[in-house]
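Section 5.1 Outputs to date
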Amino acid sequence: MALDIKLASPSVVGAYDGELALPYIHASVISAPTIANKKVTLLEGVRYRAQIPVMTTSNLIMNGACDFDDTASTMLLDVSLEVKDQMVNLQLCKGQFRTWWQGSAYNTNNSVPQDYADAILLYVAKSVQADVEHTIWNGEVGGATGYTAFDGFKHLMASSTQALTNSIATADGVLDGLQEIITAMPSGIVGDFENTKIYVNPVTISAYNLAVGQTGDGYNSAVSGASQNQFVGYELVASAGIPSGEAMVGQVGNLFVGVGSADSLELAQAIDMTPLDGSDNYRITMRFAVGCAIGVVGDAEYFTNPT
């Protein structure tokens, strides 16, 4: 997803915040590939928690009769998606970068040029984007994953996880491994080729195309149309946050990512500290909120590496 972002200039005594800064941090969050490519359902403007309604019905059809017989039932449940507050606090010494913008003319009273401030903000935003992508898949609050900000899809699917027999990270095992996924797919989503996706690490996409190129009519099979990212009719979604060799099958409308509202709680600042505390430091701060939820866990399945 291309970002067309206009950045304000940080002043010597001010902060990079306010209306112009808010879309910047917002864009860095929703540019995580799985979100940006619309392969999950994005809920924007979530304040603390969103309730996702899940409706199920039973006994809708019965034998015809003269009387009204109320046997059908409807159950409405709520799944909570709670966004977790996140922040970035980065402090840089301007002196370390003086040759980048002023060479020997640098002194501690000089402000940070706009293009340098923009470059630092863009670098931090891209790091935020990458971390969000990893966390929406691997996050586990209190866990040992290294991504503990909020619970990601893998942790939310802990009750419906199975190990593959064949590796989907190698060309010699990927076809059999993908077939395992199809075989184990929840019955309720079988045949829904438009909405059901197989989420995999990009390594699997490469292995799949290599395997296809070695079968059938070789190169033509590997490069012709949808064969590059479809397996027996289901789209293979390259999601960099999924660990190599792992996969998840589910529907776009059943996987939710929520982000905080773009207001005063979602903030990006680039602050020159020299006029504030006399130091030679430059600070980057960002605040935002993200969370994940699955509507019906039984309509999805997560697959780990072969044991």
